[in-house]
Amino acid sequence: MSDSPAATDEPLGFHSIDDERDERLAVTGAVPSWLSGTLFRNGPGTFRVGEDSVDHWFDGLAMVQRYSFADGAVHYRNRFLRTDAYAAAQDGEFDGGFATGTSTLRDRLYDTLFAEPYDNTNIIVERVGEEYLALTESPRWVGLDPETLATTGHVQYDGPAPAGDLTCAHFQYDPARDTHVTFDVEFGRQSHYHVYEMRSPRRRQVLASIPVDRPAYMHSFALTPNYVVLTEFPFDVNPLAFFKPGRQGPFVENFDWRPAAGTRVHIVDRTGGGVVATARSPATFGFHHVNAFEDDGDIVFDLETVPDAAAIETLSLAALRAGDLDAFGGRLHRYRIVDPEGTARVERRLLYGGGTALPTVSPDVWLDRHRYVYSQGTDQPVTEWPTAVRKIDTETGDVVEYDDTGDHFSEPIFVPRPDGDREDDGVVLTVALDTGADRSVLVVLDGETMTERARAPLPHAVPFDFHGRYFPELTV
C-alpha cells in the first residue's frame, strides 16, 4: 500500500468518497416513458485504507450505484458493501488485493482453502436465480438487497468438488436456457480450469475440468448456444512456485508474460460436456469478450485486445492519478474458429483499431449474431480517460460517437426498447464525470443516432467504476 494523498489532491475519477445518498434526480430532456427497470453499477468508491491508500484501481472498495427508472423519472442510490475487506480497511488493516499488498500467492491460496476468501466484490452485480450478487474474482460472493443495497451476507459454493480458488466474475447468461456459465481456476501441482453452468449460486453442473500446467489470468470468456470458449492468454503462473519461499508481492505480480507460448483457445461442448478441441492463435492479451455466436458450424466471437499484459501496470493508481496513460488502447478483433470439433483453426481479423474500452452489446443479441458494439471511446494510444461513447458497426465499419461535452464516460449499457424492431432500437445508459461541475451525470443516449435524450446530475462525483447490468424486472 502507498501513502494516501489528501482528498483535495486526488484527481476526480480516482478520488474517494464517503457519502451514501438516496434521492430522486432532476432530469433535463426526456427519459423514454418505456424505460422501466434498474441499472446497477459496481466499482471502487474509495481507495483509502486508514491513513494509506490501495495501489491499484482494481483494489478500491466496492460501492454499488442503483439507478431506477419509472415514468420518465430517475431515482439514485449508492452504498458501500459491508464486506470483511471494507471493515478491515476502516481499521487500517487491509491486507492486499489484486495488485495491492505483499502477501504471496501461496498465502492467498491458503486463505481460500482454510480461511475466508477475499470479498471486495467490486466488479459487477448479477442476478443468479433469485439472488442478487456482487462479484469479484474470488469464489466468495456478496449478496445484496436489490432495493436498499444492504449487504445480506456471503454466498459461496459448498457442494461436491470440483471447485476452484479463483472464479471468473464475468458470468455469461444464456436467456434461452435461463442459466449462467462461468469457470473456476484451481491451483495445485496439477491445476485445472473448471467450467460449469448454474441456475442457483449453490448448485452447479460441471461441463469440463481442463488440466493445465501454468494457469493463465483470464478475466472473461465467450459463450454460444453449444460451446464455452476459454481464451487462454500467455499471462500465466507456475503453481509449483507456491511451495517455494519468496516471490513476495501483490497477487498479479506472480504472473509472467510469455508471448512465445501464444494464445490457446479451449472449446468446451455444452451439450455432452468435455473439451472438443484446443486451438492456438498469436499471443495477445485482453480483459473483455464482447459477444459470441455460431455461424455455419463455426464459432465467432469478438474480443477487445491489447498487445500484452502491460495494461495492468498502466492502471495502477499512481500512474492514473499522474495522468500517465500513454498506453495502447483496446482494439476490437473478430475471432472465427473454423471446424471447432475437427481441425479447430483460428482466424482473426481487426474490426476496429481505434481506442476502445469496456465494449458491450444489446442483451437481445447475447449468444446470437450481433451487428453493433457500444464502447467507451479513447484516443490511440490512450492519453486521457475515455471522453466519448462509440457505436461500432461490425458489418460496415462505420462508427458513430457521442463526444460533445468533454466529460469522461463509463461503460455504456444498451437497454432495448420492448417490442423494438431493430438491434439498435433502444437507449444507451452511461455515467459521465463532469470535471468542471465536480459531479457525475447519468446520460441517456439514443441507441440508433447516439444523440443525447436526457441527463440527470448526481449529488456528487462518483469515482470511475467498472461494470453495469440492467434489470428490467426491478421496477420498484
What's the arrangement of secondary structure elements?
Elements: E1 2-3, E2 22-25, E3 28-29, E4 37-46, E5 48-49, E6 52-53, E7 61-70, E8 73-80, H1 84-90, H2 105-114, E9 124-128, E10 131-135, E11 140-144, E12 151-156, E13 166-167, E14 172-174, E15 179-186, E16 191-200, E17 203-212, E18 222-223, E19 227-232, E20 235-236, E21 256-257, E22 263-269, E23 275-281, E24 289-295, E25 298-305, H3 311-314, H4 317-321, E26 330-338, E27 345-360, E28 372-378, E29 388-393, E30 399-402, E31 408-409, E32 413-416, E33 426-434, E34 439-446, E35 452-457, E36 467-471
Antiparallel strand pairs: 1-6, 2-8, 3-35, 4-7, 4-36, 5-6, 7-8, 9-10, 10-11, 11-12, 13-15, 14-15, 15-16, 16-17, 18-19, 19-22, 20-21, 22-23, 24-25, 25-26, 26-27, 27-28, 28-29, 29-30, 31-33, 32-33, 33-34, 34-35
Any overview of this molecule?
The protein is mostly beta strands and 476 residues long. The chain has a single domain (2-471), classed as YVTN repeat-like/Quinoprotein amine dehydrogenase (Methylamine Dehydrogenase, Chain H, 7 Propeller). Helices cover 5% and strands 44% of the residues. The chain contains four helices and 36 strands. Strands 24-25-26-27-28-29-30 form a seven-stranded antiparallel sheet, with no helix packed on it. Strands 3, 31, 32, 33, 34 and 35 form a six-stranded antiparallel sheet that branches. The longest helix has 10 residues, at 105-114. The protein is globular. 47% of the residues are buried. The model is unreliable at 1-8 (pLDDT under 50).
